[in-house]
Amino acid sequence: MKDFDHLMSVWQGQPKPDQLSVDEVLKQVKKGIRSITQKLYWSIVAMVVTVAFAFVVTFFLAFKSAVTTIGILIVLVTMLMYLSLMVRHYHILSKRDATLNPAEYLDSLKAYQKNRSKVIGWFYYTYILLLSAGLAMYFIEVLEHSSLTFKIVTYTSIGIWFLFTTFYLKPRMFKNEEEKLNLMIDRLVRLKEQFD
To answer: What residue intervals traverse the membrane (predicted)?
Structure first.
């Protein structure tokens, strides 16, 4: 019995976890979401401008080869798919308010993170591959009268760009956003556990 009392005193002597301020946590979560949505917003704006430019090139410039037109159409459709995905993510993140129902917001944030990880995983590779293939097809006609050396440099550059964005840029870019989401989810989970 003496050991039990000693164990209880040690257990009760453990420091209590810091109590989180509801206002502070919600303010930090809103700030983090605002940061992600602003980044998405400007990415959407840049993509809309790029899509408009690709549209003009596709439908207002005359190309001799159907392969070139198909290449530009592949680039255009790929960018439209990525644009629709970004707009969807923007709406998911910006439509809810964390202060109205933090528990529901936490669930929606977890669902968003899970869905995003799954979709981004396969979609990003498809996006880069289609974009690279479309550019390669576009350059067939554009580089028709160029030297062999210039063609090799151009196609090698496309390959290097594909490898760079796939294996260097993508992991860093999405890891940063994933860390922000994990931090916000962790804060909301701790806040929820504080009141359970």
So the answer is: 40-63, 69-87, 119-140, 152-169
12: in domain? no
| Domain tally, the chain | 1
Contacts of 23 (CB under 8 A, 6+ apart): none
Instruction: Write down the pTM of the prediction.
Output: 0.74
Q: How far is 190 from 196, CA to CA, in rounded Å?
A: 10
CA–CA distance, 82 with 50 (Å, rounded to integer): 12
- Residue 165 falls inside a structural domain: yes
DSSP H or E stretch at residue 107: helix 102-142
- Residue 132, φ and ψ in degrees, nearest 5: -65, -40
Degrees to nearest 5, angle at CA 105 with 83 and 24: 110
pLDDT, block means (10 residues), the chain with 196 residues: 56 56 75 86 92 85 85 91 89 73 76 79 84 87 89 89 85 82 81 69
Q: What is the extent of the structural domain holding 68? A: 20-195
Q: Is residue 51 part of a domain?
A: yes
pLDDT of residue 196: 60
- Tokens 């946590």 locate to 25
Which are the contacts of 135, defined by CB distance < 8 A and separation ≥ 6? Answer: 71, 75, 158
φ, ψ of residue 20 in degrees (nearest 5)? -90, 140
Q: Within a domain: residue 2? A: no
| 20: enclosing H helix or E strand | none
